[in-house]
Amino acid sequence: MMATNSTTLGIVAFTLVATLADGFVNQLLSGSSPMVVSVSPAPFHANSIQPSTTFKRLQMVSFPEDSMSSSSSSSSSNYEKQSRQNNSPIEEDEQPPSSLSSSASPSDFTSDQYERNDGAFPLPDDMSVPKTRQLRWEREKLVLSKFANGDELFDLRHEVASLRKELAETRKLMDDASKKKGDDAVALRGLKRRVKEIEDKILRVSGRDAEFAYAVLLERVEKAESEGDTEKAKKIRKEAEEARACIPQLNMHGLWVGKYGENGYEMVNITYSGDTLVATKVTGDQNVPRGEISFTANLSPRAQFQTMSGLEPIELNARAARQWGKRYLPRHVGKGQVASEGYQNAQWMDGQLILVGRFFSFAWVPIGHQVFFGRPSAELTLKMLREHQEEEMMKDHVAVMREEATHMMDETYWSERENNYFEQEGCFE
C-alpha cells in the first residue's frame, strides 16, 4: 500500500508541474513575452497536419558577426594562444590545483560538501567519501568554475556580440585611415592597438563559454590527428569532454516523461549519437509506437558557431523570470516525427528543443504541438512500464492466451511433481 501511495503522489506531483508549465507557456503566448509555438493539447495526425497561424515570432537579436575576413584556423590559433595566458579550460599544460594532490585523509570529506555537484551520490553526512570520488568531485568543481552558465552565459554572449560589432567598425576605420594620403601614423597605430585589445578581450570572454571552448577544442583535436600527434589529440580530447560535460543540452541522458496531448503521459529515453540528441519512445501510442524515435536535435556547437544557425533564447518578462529564476530559455533546432494511426505516413517536421531549468519541452512547430518533459520517479517509471506492457498484451489476444497457457502448464508441472507423479509405477509395470 505504501508503494501505491508513493506512486500516486509521484504522478500527482508530476501532473501539477506539467500543468503549471503548460499554463506558463500559454501565459507567454498571450502576454508580452514572445514564444516559439502555441500549445495544443490535441493529438497530432499526419493526415491532418495543417500549418499553424497563431505563432508569435521571437524578435531575433542575432549576434553580429565580424564582417572582416578572417579564417577559422587563425581564430583557433589566437584562442589557443590567449587561453595559455588566461588559464582557460583548454590550456594544454593545465595542472590540477594542489588540493587534488592533497594528502588529506578521505575522512576529512563528507558528502554534504558536494551535494550541489552533478554525479554526487547522496550519502549520509557522517559517511566518509572515498579519495577517488573526492578527487573527481573537486575536478568537476574546478572545471565548472571556469565556465559561465544560465543568464550569465547569455549576458556574456551579448557582450561578445557587442565587441564583434566594435571590432568590425574599428577595422573599417583602420582601413580607411591607411588609404588616405598623408595619413596620421599615430592615429593608425592607435587603431591597430585598439583592434588587438578588442580581439584579446573577445577571446578572453569567449573562453568562459563552454560551447565555444568545446567547438575550438574539437578543431584542435582534428588538427592534432591530421598531424599524427596522437598523444596531443588524446589530451585535447579529454579537455573537450570536460567542456562538453558543462553544456546542459548535451547531458540530458536517461528517461523523461511528457504528456502527448490526448494520448496521455509517455516516456522517452534520451541518448546521443555524437552531439545529436535522440529521444526514443519507451512507451508509445497508436501513432508513433514504442521503440520509434520521437524527436532529434543536432546540438553540435561547431555547426552553430561556424554557420551562426543557432536560435536566440526566449527572453522572459519580469514576472515569468521571477517565477522560473532565469531570464533566458535556451532553444535549439530539431526534428520531430509524426504519423497517422498505425504508424502510417510517418514523416519528420521542424521542431525546437527548449530548456526550462530542470525540465525541457519539444515543439512540433508546423502543427503547434508542444510536449513538456520532466524526470520520472522510480515508482512512476515502474508503473508506466508495467501499465504499458499490460496494454500491449491486451491488444494481442494471442499473446495473452499463450502466456496463460504457459502459466497453466507451469502450474500443472509443479503440482504433479509435488505429488510425486513422475515417480509412480506405470499401469503396465
Word description of this protein:
The chain has 429 residues and is of the alpha+beta class. 46% of the residues lie in helices and 15% in strands. The radius of gyration is 29 Å and the shape is elongated. The two termini are 55 Å apart.
Structural class: alpha+beta
Measured between the Cα atoms of the first and last residue, the distance is: 55 Å
**What is the H/E order?**
HHHHHHHEEEEHEHEEEEEHH
Q: What is the overall pLDDT average? A: 74
Key terms:
single chain; about 425 residues; alpha+beta; eight-stranded antiparallel barrel; two-stranded antiparallel ribbon; elongated; disordered N terminus
List the helices and strands and how they pair.
Blueprint: H1 2-30, H2 72-86, H3 131-145, H4 151-179, H5 185-206, H6 210-226, H7 230-244, E1 254-259, E2 265-273, E3 276-281, E4 293-298, H8 301-307, E5 314-315, H9 318-324, E6 328-329, E7 331-340, E8 344-356, E9 359-364, E10 369-374, H10 378-395, H11 397-418
Helix pairs in contact: 4-5, 6-7
Short description:
The protein is of the alpha+beta class and 429 residues long.
